[in-house]
Write a structure and sequence with these properties.
It is a single chain. Helix 2 crosses helix 12. By secondary structure, the protein is of the alpha+beta class. It contains 14 helices and 11 strands. It has 2 domains: about 160 residues, no CATH class; about 180 residues, no CATH class.
Amino acid sequence: MSSKVPLSWLLLSKLKSRFFAAIAGIAFAVILSMMELGFQEALFAGITQLFSHMNADLVLISPLYQCLVARETFPERRLYQTLAVPQVNSVSSIYMDTAQWTNPVNHRDRFIFVVGFKPRHGTFDFPAVDSHLEQISRPGAILFDEVSRSEFGPIAKIFESKGSVVTELSRRQVEVVGLFKMGASFANAGHVITSDMNFLRLNPTRQRGDIDIGLIKLEPGSAVNATKAELAGMLPDDVTVLTKQEFLDREKDYWSRNLPIGFLFRASLVIGLIVGVVIVYQILHSGISEQLAQYATLKAIGYSDLRLFRVVLEEALILSLLGFIPGVLLTLGLYGVVHSVTALPLRMPVFRILLVYVMTAAMCASAGALAYRKLRAADPAEIF
C-alpha cells in the first residue's frame, strides 16, 4: 500500500460497481436539488419580472390584492390624489388582465397576459416600449414579448420578415408593431403591452377608472419611507401604499407561503436530500460489511475509532465531490433544455453551486456517520 494514496480512496475504488453506483446516486440528488432551487428562483424571478421593470418609488394597490393572478382593482382617483404631496413627481396607471391570443399560424387560442398604460416615457424600463409609444397609441396596436412561449406562434420571426404581425386578441384584430424582451413565468406564458385605451377596447367590461396598480415616482432626493407614511395617512383605506421593494417581497412571499407550488419546491428539495443520504448510506454500509475483516485488522493493529471514523468520513466526502461534478454539468444541460421549452428564466449562480455542494457534503457526511455505527460495533476477536 503506497503511503501517498489515501486509505479511504483504496477502500472505495476496490468495489468499483458500488463506487460508480454511489457517484450516480449522488449526481441524481445534486440534479434534483439544483433543479428544485432553479425552479424556485425562476418562480420568484418570473412572477416579479413585470413589476421589476416598472419605474416607481412607491406602489399603490388595493388592500384585497393578493398576487399577480389574484388581483383587485381600486379607484384611479386615489392615484391622482397623491399628486397633492410635494414629493410626488408623477404617477402612472397600470391595467392588467388575460386575453385570448390567436396564433396567426395555426389559429389556436391561448391565454396571454395583457398590460395597459397611458403611453408615457419612463413608465417601464424597456427601451423598446419607450420607442413605440406613438405606435401603440393607435387603435389595435400592441407590443409582443418575443421571449414568450412558442405556442403563441413565431411572432418574432414573422415581425422581422414582414415588419408587423396581424392577429386577434379577445376576438378583436390587433397588430404587433414592436417587440420587447421579458420572458415567461409560472403565472403567464406570454405578455403583451399596449396603451390604456387599447386595453379598455379589449376589455369592454372594465371601467376606465378602475386600475390594478398605481406607480408613483418621487422627486429626486425625497425620503421614500417618509413619503409612504404621509400618503398612507392621507389616503382612504381602500388603497395600500408600498415601496417598490415591499411590493416585490409581498409577491414573492405570497407565492412561497400561500400557494402549493412554493411548498412543493421545498418538499422536493428535502426529499432529494433524503434520497441522497439513503443511497450513500447503503453504499458505505455495504462496503463496510464486505470489508469488515480489513477494518477489524486495522483496529487490531491500533487504529482508533476516531481514526477509522475519519477514513469513513473521507470516503463520504470523496463520493460527494465525485458525484457533485457530473451532477452540476448535467444540470446545466437540463437548464438549457427547460429554458428552450418553457422560456423560464433559469440560471446557475455561483452561490447556488456552493450551497448545493455544502448540502451534498453534509448529506454524504451524515450518511457516513450512520454507516460508521456498524464499524464501531465490530469486535476484531469475534470477526477472526
